[in-house]
Amino acid sequence: MTALDTPPTLNVGVTRLRKEDAHLVTGRSNWTDNITLTGLLHVALVRSPMAHAKVSNVDVSAALEQPGVVAAFTGADLADNWAGGLPCAWPVTPDMKSPTHLPLATDEVRYVGDAVAVVVARTRPQAVDATEHVVVDYEPLPAVVDMEAALADGSPLADTSLDTNKSFTWQKIDGEIDDAFDGAAHVTTRRFINQRLIPTAIEPRSVVCAPPRETRETTLWSATQVPHILRLMLALTCGVPEHELRVVAPDVGGGFGSKLNVYAEEAICLVLARKLGKPVKWTETRSEGYQATIHGRDQIQDVSLAFNEDNTIRGMRVELHADMGAYLQLVTPGIPILGAFMFNSIYKMDALSFTCHGVFTNKTPTDAYRGAGRPEATYAIERLIDEAANELGVEPFELRERNWIKHEEFPYTTIAGIEYDSGNYEAATAKAREIFGYDDLRAEQAQRRGSGDPVQLGIGISTFTEMCGLAPSRVLGSLSYGAGGWEHASVRMLPSGKVEVITGTSPHGQGHVTSWSQIAADALGVAYEDVEVRHGDTNVAHKGMDTYGSRSLVVGGYAVQVACDKVVAKAKKVAAHLLEAAEDDIEFSGGTFSVSGSPDANTTIQDISLAVFAAHDYPEDMEPSLDSDATVDPENFSYPHGTHLCATEVDTETGRVTIRRYVAVDDVGKVINPQIVDGQVHGGLAQGIAQALYEEAVYDSEGNLTTGSLLDYYVPSAADLPHFETDRTETPATSNPLGVKGVGEAGTIASTPAVINAVVDALRHLGVNDMPMPASPRNVWEALQAANNGGAA
Amino acid sequence: MIPATFDYIRAGSVEEAVAALTEHGDEAKLLAGGHSLLPLMKLRLASPEVLIDLGRVDALRGVCELDDGRLSIGAMTAHQDVIDNDLVRQHCGVLADVTRQVGDAQVRHRGTIGGALAHGDAASDLPAALLALDGTVVVQGPSGQREIAAADLFVDYLATSISDDEVITEVRVPKFDGSWGWNYQKFSRVAQAWAIVGSLGLVKRSNGNVEEARVGLTHMGTVPLRATAVEQALAGAAIDGIADAAEHAAEGTSAPTDLNATSEFREHLARVLTKRALTAAAG
Ligand SMILES: Cc1cc2nc3c(=O)[nH]c(=O)nc-3n(C[C@H](O)[C@H](O)[C@H](O)COP(=O)(O)OP(=O)(O)OC[C@H]3O[C@@H](n4cnc5c(N)ncnc54)[C@H](O)[C@@H]3O)c2cc1C
C-alpha cells in the first residue's frame, strides 16, 4: 500500500512521457493485422475496375477451384445478410437522396473499387490469386466525375436508381443577406477549389472477426476510431444482437477521420465469420485503401464578402458544391454542413447565407478528414479576407483586426448562431507577429521585389478559429445527426490504492492513456504511475462515443474529471466516518483527507479504498464502493483559435515553393500535456501544409483514380517540411471544468490558408491573385505564365 | 499488392545465373535490390514465373581500378556503398553525388547500381549520369562477355540492349580529375520522389574557359538524354556563355506530359536546371 508522505507533484500542465509509446516503438504493438487466431482464414475482395457499370453476371465458380480457397460469394449470395446496406447516420435534409450502399454491389458498380465479390482462402496470397478467377461481366455506363456537369440538365446519372445527381441542398440564412449586399460599398467575390484529399493513416485498415465459440459472442477487431458506434451500427446492419457482439479497437495507427466509419469490409468479415464458423481477416493494401477508404474535402466554393465604406463586413454569401462521391458513408453529408458555422470565423457581420449542394459522382465516397468541414471553411474565409484586403488597399492584418471579435466582447454569439465562450485574437496575433519578426520580413520582401530577385518572398496570415469538442447532443439533434455527443468514463478504485480509468474515447495515436492518467492522478491525489487507462473494447468500456472532432479531451477528459470528483466525494464521506468528524470539516488535498484544524487526524485515499474494500466499517447511508461513472454532455462546443504566420520563398523560375518560417501561436485553452499538444499541432500543420503544397486526389475523365498510390500521391515527409515554431496563449474554455479546448485539428485547419496566402503574396506584384491547390511547381509556373500573358490569374 | 506466385532460385555465381536465365528464358527475371522489380510484381504489372536472386553473388560487389585507368563497380554494389566508396569519391565524385540523390536511405541501402541501369528508367537518376560520364556496362551471357557503351544501352521506355539471358556484371566509369566540376539539379515534388526533370552538368575548365561540357538529362524522353546542343555551344566557350547555351537544353528532347508537368513545363525546367547545374559546375 502506497500512502505517500508528500503529496504527489501535480501532473496537469506538465509534460509526461507517453505511457503508450514503449510498446509502439519496440515492435510489441497490437495492430489488427498482427492478430492471428487458430484456423484464421483470409479475405480478398474483387473490386470494380470501372467507375460506373451495370453488373450483369458475377461467377465465382472458377475461384472456388483454386488452391486453398474455402469459400467465395457474390453480392447476391450475401444480400440477405445486410438488409438495408451500410448506414449513413446524418440525413441532413428530410428529402436527402441516399443510394442503397451494399457492402457487395449486386447489379451496378458506382466507383472504381466498389466491391462485387469476396474470396476466402487459407492464405492471403491464395485469396488474392483466386480473385483473378472471379468472372464479372461489366456493361460500362457513363461516369459522372465533374460536380457542376453532374447537376446540368441531361447529365448521366451516377446512380441509375436515382433520378438526379443531387443528394441535397442545405441552406441557412442569418440576417438580411440581400440588404447586406445591395447596400455594400465593396464586394469581393471568389471561387476557390478545395481539392479532394486522401487521408493516409500509416496503419492500413484491417478487420479480424471471430465467430462465437464458448459463448454466443462474436468478436470483431478493427482498425477503427469508433468501436462503440461500429458495434451498434454493425448490429443493426447485419442483424447481430448487440449484446452478442464485441468490438475491439486494438492499437490503431492513425485515422484522421478515415477510420470513423462503418465500412463494407467490416460488415463482410462479420457476416463471413458467422457464416463459415471460422475466424477471418482482411487487411487493405495501400492502393486498395486509396480506392476504398473514404476521401476528404472536395468542394467548389463560391464566396463573397460585402463591406461598408469603413471596411467593416456587412455580410457573406457562401455557395458550396460538395462532392459526396458515389455513396453516403457514415457522416458524408454532414461534413460540409459543419462549415455552415465556420465561414464567418472570427469576424463580426450582420448577415450570412450558406447554401450547400451535395452532389453524387462516380468516385470514392468522401467523409470526415482531419478538420471535417472547418478546414474548407477556414481556407475560404482566410483567403477571401486577403483578397479583400488587396482590393480595398489595406494591410491584411488591419482588415482582420477591424472585423474580428474583440476579447472584451466574449462570450459572443456569432451570426451563425453559436456562442463563442472565450478567446483573445489580439493576444495570439501580437505574440505570433513578434516571434515571426513580421516587419523585418516585410522589409526583405520589399527589397526582393525591388531587385527583381528570381526567388520572391511572401507572407501568409491565418487568424483562425474552429468549433470542436463534438458535441452538445441537443445541437447535434437540431442538425439531424443520428446520435448524441456525450462521453462516458468510469473510475475504479482498487483495494491496493491503484486506479483504473475506463474511457469511452478511442485513441489512435493521441496519447489519451497519458493525458487521462494526468487528469485522474491530480483529481484523486494519486501517483501518475498508479493510474491505468483502458479503452477501445466494448467489453471493457461498455459505453462511449469514441474519438473524432477534437472531442476526446474536451468531452472524454471532462467525464474522467467528473467521475474522479464523484470518487473523491464518496471517499470524503468515508473519511469523515473513519476520522469521526463532520463531512464539512474534511479537507482534501494531494490524496490526503484531514480534519480541518487538526492535521494529524488524516487518512489517504488509498487507505480509504482498502477500508471500503474490506467494508468492515463504512457509513450506513452508502454502498461499500468508491467506484464512479460519469456521462457528460457538453453544454457548448469548444473554440480553439490562433494566429499562424507563414513565410514562403517562391522560385519564379521553377515554381518551387519553400517554406522559410512557420510560426503557429495556438490558443487551446488549458494544456494538460504540453508535449502532446505540440505533437498534435506539428502533425496538424504537416497535413494542412500537405493540402497547400503537395496532395491532390486526381481522377481522369473516366473516373479512374490517377493518383492511386504513394508514387503519385505526394505525402510530404519531415524532409519536405520546415521547422515549426509553436507557441501558445491560454484563454480557458468556460464550458468544461478543465478549461480545455480541442487541439487535434487546429493545425490542419489553420495552416492551409496561411501557406497559400503566402504563396499568393509572394507573386501578387507579378499579377497573380489566385493559386490552385496544391501549389505545385506546375501550378505556380502556370499561374505565372497566365499572369505574364496579360490577365491576372 | 501481393505478387503472383513465382519460383525462386538463388544464384551462387554469375555462371549459375546465366544458366538459369538460359533455361527459363523470358519467364525469368534477375532479382537485385528488388526496389524496382518487386513494386511492379506487387502491382501485378510484372509476373515473372522465376526469380533468380543475385544477392549472394559476392563477386558482383565492390569497386576496383582497371588497368586502363577506369573504375569498375560491381553490378550488385548498393547505392550507399557506391556513395561511401573511397575510389569513387576520389576519382568519380560525380557518381557519388548523383547517387546520393537517389530515393531515401532505405532505397539507397537496398537498390543497386546494376539494377538501376538494367531497369533503364529515364526518370531515374543513374541512367542519365552514366550517359553523361561516358560510362559502360559489362554484361555476361551464354556466349561470354561484352561491354556496352551507355549511348548504346538505353533503347526505349524501360528497354535496354541487354538480352534476356545476360547479366550485368560491372559498371565502368572514367576518372574525372580536378579540372572537372559537376552539379546535379534534381527537381522533384517531395524529397524521396523521382525527378520531374534532372540535369547533370559537368564542366572541364581551362584558363577560365569551358574546355568541355557535358549535360545528362533525366526524364526528358523515353530514354535518358545528352543535351548535345548545349554541349556543342559551350565547347571552348567562355564561362559566361552558360546561360545562353542552356537555352538549347530542350532541343531534341521528347518530354512526357503527366500530372507533375506538361512537356512545355519540362522543357522550361530543363533549360533552367541546366543553367543552374552548369553554372554551379563551372563555379
Ligand atoms: C521508394 C523508392 C524511391 C526510389 N527513388 C529513386 C530515385 O529517386 N531515383 C532513382 O534513380 N531510383 C529510385 N528508386 C529506384 C531504386 O534506385 C532501385 O533500387 C533501382 O532502380 C533498381 O535497383 P535494384 O537493385 O533495386 O533492382 P531490381 O528491382 O532488383 O531490378 C530491377 C530490374 O533490373 C534487372 N536487373 C537487376 N540486376 C540486374 C543485373 N545485374 N543484370 C541484368 N539485369 C538486372 C531486374 O531483373 C529488374 O528487371 C526508388 C525506389 C523506391 C522503391
Please sum up the structure shown.
The complex is a heterodimer of chains A (793) and B (283). In chain A, 29% of the residues lie in helices and 24% in strands. Chain A has 793 residues and is an alpha+beta fold.
Distance between the termini of chain B: 47 Å
Low-confidence stretches of chain B: none
Shape of chain A: globular
Strand content of chain A: 15-25%
Q: Helical percent range of chain A?
A: 25-40%
Instruction: Spell the H/E element sequence of chain B.
Output: EHEHEEEHHHHHHEEHEEEEEEEHHH
Topology:
The complex is a heterodimer of chains A (793) and B (283).
Chain A: H1 21-25, E1 41-47, E2 53-59, H2 61-64, E3 69-74, H3 75-78, E4 108-109, E5 115-121, H4 124-131, E6 135-140, H5 147-151, E7 166-174, H6 177-182, E8 186-197, E9 206-210, E10 218-222, H7 227-238, E11 245-248, H8 264-276, E12 280-283, H9 286-292, E13 296-307, E14 313-325, H10 334-338, E15 351-360, H11 374-392, H12 396-403, E16 412-413, E17 419-420, H13 425-436, H14 438-451, E18 455-465, H15 473-478, E19 487-493, E20 499-503, H16 512-524, E21 531-534, H17 552-579, E22 586-589, E23 592-595, E24 598-604, H18 605-614, E25 628-632, E26 641-651, E27 657-667, H19 674-693, E28 724-728, H20 746-763, H21 777-788
Parallel strand pairs in A: 1-12, 10-11, 14-15, 20-21, 27-28
Antiparallel strand pairs in A: 1-5, 2-4, 2-6, 3-5, 7-15, 8-13, 9-10, 9-12, 13-14, 16-17, 18-26, 19-20, 19-25, 22-23, 23-24, 26-27
Helix pairs in contact in A: 11-12, 11-20, 16-17, 17-18, 19-20
Chain B: E1 7-10, H1 14-24, E2 28-31, H2 37-42, E3 50-53, E4 63-65, E5 71-74, H3 79-84, H4 86-91, H5 93-100, H6 105-110, H7 113-119, H8 125-132, E6 136-141, E7 144-149, H9 150-153, E8 154-156, E9 159-160, E10 167-173, E11 180-187, E12 197-206, E13 209-218, E14 225-226, H10 228-234, H11 242-246, H12 263-282
Parallel strand pairs in B: 1-3, 2-3
Antiparallel strand pairs in B: 4-5, 5-10, 6-7, 6-10, 8-9, 11-12, 12-13, 13-14
Flavin-adenine dinucleotide is lined by residues 29-37, 39, 54, 75, 102-103, 107, 111-112, 114-116, 118-119, 124-126, 162, 167-168, 192, 194 of chain B.
